[in-house]
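User: Reviewer 2 asked us to show a designed sequence for the structure in our supplementary figure. I'm pasting the structure tokens here. Could you produce the per-position amino acids so we can include them in the response letter?
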């Protein structure tokens, strides 16, 4: 049991630390000699990076943020999850039911929990970066990247399709982001059916991503959100 819990804890902590790296701030200061937080919306994510630093700076921030999400998911899938799977659950303690009780019941797969915790860790680390006094970005790029491993390629591309559709219909990046976050609990329900704790972790994290877009939601309701091309959303 201790080995499994250790790897679950590491899956979250390592992913949180990876997610917390504020690449938007680092790139803006080192390469452009400015602070992205003083530009545009003040957000450290990809959208504001394009506004503040142009195509090159924005693309670099996107790649780095996407990369930390990919690395978080990869570590969970190919390092922590295999380590957990190598532990015979029923023999991990003298009482196999005790271990199952710790994980919430026999329907909960510890490997699925490791992936869910990695998704939560990198996303929350990005939104609540301890290096920025627990402020950060909105979590879309890093979360989407991690979902390649959490949901697999099919789930990942469904998320990208929702993101693209939201933008295509409204020309607002925030609508695409919110749409992708909104369908995340539904996809998790499919991919993690019966694994209620991993599902709850993924769903709760998606809700935090939507909460991080609260200012965008307010502007959308007021009809003042920026559109691609510089116009306002109707």
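Assistant: Here is a per-position design you can include in the supplement:
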């Amino acid at each position: 049991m201790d080995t499994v819990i250790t790897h679950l804890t590491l899956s979250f902590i390592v992913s949180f630390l990876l997610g917390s790296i504020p690449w938007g701030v680092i790139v803006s200061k080192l390469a452009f000699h400015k602070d992205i937080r003083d530009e545009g919306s003040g957000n450290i994510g990809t959208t504001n990076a394009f506004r503040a630093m142009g195509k090159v700076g924005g693309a670099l921030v996107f790649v780095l943020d996407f990369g930390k999400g990919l690395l978080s998911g990869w570590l969970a899938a190919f390092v922590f999850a295999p380590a957990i799977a190598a532990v015979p659950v029923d023999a991990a303690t003298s009482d196999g039911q005790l271990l199952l009780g710790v994980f919430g019941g026999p329907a909960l797969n510890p490997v699925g929990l490791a992936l869910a915790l990695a998704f939560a860790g990198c996303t929350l680390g990005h939104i609540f970066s301890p290096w920025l006094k627990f402020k950060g970005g909105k979590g879309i790029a890093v979360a989407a990247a991690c979902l390649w491993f959490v949901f697999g390629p099919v789930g990942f591309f469904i998320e990208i399709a929702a993101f693209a559709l939201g933008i295509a219909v409204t020309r607002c990046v925030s609508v695409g982001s919110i749409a992708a976050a909104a369908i995340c609990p539904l996809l998790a329900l499919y991919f993690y059916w019966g694994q209620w704790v991993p599902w709850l972790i993924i769903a709760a994290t998606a809700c935090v991503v939507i909460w991080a877009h609260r200012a965008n939601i307010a502007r959308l309701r007021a009809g003042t959100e920026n559109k691609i091309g510089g116009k306002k959303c109707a």
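For the response letter, you might also mention the following. The two ends are 55 Å apart (CA to CA). The longest helix spans residues 46-85.
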